[in-house]
Structure formats: structure tokens, C-alpha cells
Write a structure and sequence with these properties.
Elements (H helix, E strand, L loop, with lengths): L3 E2 L1 H14 L4 E9 L3 E9 L7 E5 L2 E5 L1 H7 L3 E7 L2 E7 L5 E2 L6 E2 L1
Parallel strand pairs: 1-6, 2-5
Antiparallel strand pairs: 2-3, 4-5, 6-7, 8-9
Length: 107
Amino acid sequence: MAITMTHAAEEHVVKHLAHRGHGLGIRLGVKTTGCSGLSYVLEFVDELAPEDQVFTSGDAKLIIDPKSLSFLDGTELDFVKEGLNEGFQFNNPNVKDECGCGESFHV
């Protein structure tokens, strides 16, 4: 199982951890919500849980809990800027369908 980050995502994570002043990396997970069933969750990680899986990309660490890993296997995390909008984009090969607003998905 593998989760990857683009160079743009890696740079964004490293920059924000440096600005924050502490932290090991970011956690990518899924939670049950929305019209389609699941949505992505990103948060800073200060301590690892024993069951966490850590994926390293350059200087950035992406931490995944075991429950989320099966939904995220093969995902590429990207950071995209389009005009005035910017944000993380999840290129997840497991997604079968997304809701109309793009906030949730199901596998």
C-alpha cells in the first residue's frame, strides 16, 4: 500500500509545518459524512499513534491511520493553485463516485 505526494504538496506541507513551529507531518484520513458517504480529513500531527503508517516524500511526512488506509491506497496528494483558489487535490484511484458538490465520495 502506498500514498504519495507531488512536489507542490510536499513544499506546502513543509512550509506550513515550519510556520507552525512544530509537528511531525500531516494526517490524511477519511470520515463518514456528506451525500456520498466519505470525505477527506487533513490535520497536523504532533505525536504518532502506534498503528499509524508513515509515508515520506522528501522532507514531508504523510501519516495515515489503518482504518483510512484501505480507502486511500494509491492516492496521490497534490496542491493546486488556480487563479485565486488554492488547495489540496486528492487523486484517489479507489473513488467510484462523488457527490455533485465534490465534498464527499464513495469507494
